[in-house]
Amino acid sequence: MQSLKALVGALILASGCSASPPPPELPSGPEGVTKVVAEVTGITCPTCAAVAEVALRQRLAGVATVSISQSEQTIAVALSNGGGLFSPSVFRDAVASTGIKVQTFHVDACGIVEEMDNRHWFVAGQNRFALEDPKDAPSERVLCVSGLLDDHTNPYRLTLTAVHLVPY
């Protein structure tokens, strides 16, 4: 028993000696896609909505919450920590198996605007979208945006509907 107390005491002492400083604070706002709202057709019953929710949770990375409205024909997915790479085709495929068809995607994302090859790009974590009209989005500054995502083009095009600067 005495040796157990000595061991516990030594571990406590050792942990105090090797304690590292806390990690630095990250800038406010995650970088990446934080929310996706899909306007859809085909949500005909609560059961198909539940099956679609399970499919989205299984196939999309970083899903925090899923809200499905049968009356509004929308699916809202909140992603944690930017959710990694958002794939519209994975989203479409996940809900297609339940008979739901995506009409449009509205995304909320945080990142920066970059200028390259005479184009403006919104870079949000692992996601990169061509901006349709970057006039309200300053370059090289962290910001959070909302916009309509056209995933039928290559590269994907983002038409901004709102821009919010992230304070330093």
Principal-axis shape equals elongated
The profile of the biggest β sheet is:
5 strands, mixed, barrel
Q: So how many helices?
A: 3
Structural class: alpha+beta
Strand content: 35-45%
Q: Say what the CATH topology is.
A: Alpha-Beta Plaits
Helix content: 10-25%
Give a description of the structure.
The protein is an alpha+beta fold and 168 residues long. The chain has one domain: Alpha-Beta Plaits (2-Layer Sandwich), CATH 3.30.70. 23% of the residues lie in helices and 40% in strands. The chain is built from three helices and eight strands; from the N terminus they run αβαββαβββββ. The protein has helices at residues 2-17, 46-59, 88-96, and strands spanning 32-41, 63-69, 74-79, 101-116, 119-124, 127-131, 143-150, 157-165. The chain has a five-stranded mixed beta barrel. Helix 2 packs antiparallel against helix 3. The protein is elongated. The N and C termini lie far apart (54 Å). The model is unreliable at 1-29 (pLDDT under 50).
Short description:
The protein is α+β, with helices and mostly antiparallel strands and 168 residues long. The protein has helices at residues 2-17, 46-59, 88-96, and strands spanning 32-41, 63-69, 74-79, 101-116, 119-124, 127-131, 143-150, 157-165. The protein is elongated, with a radius of gyration of 22 Å.
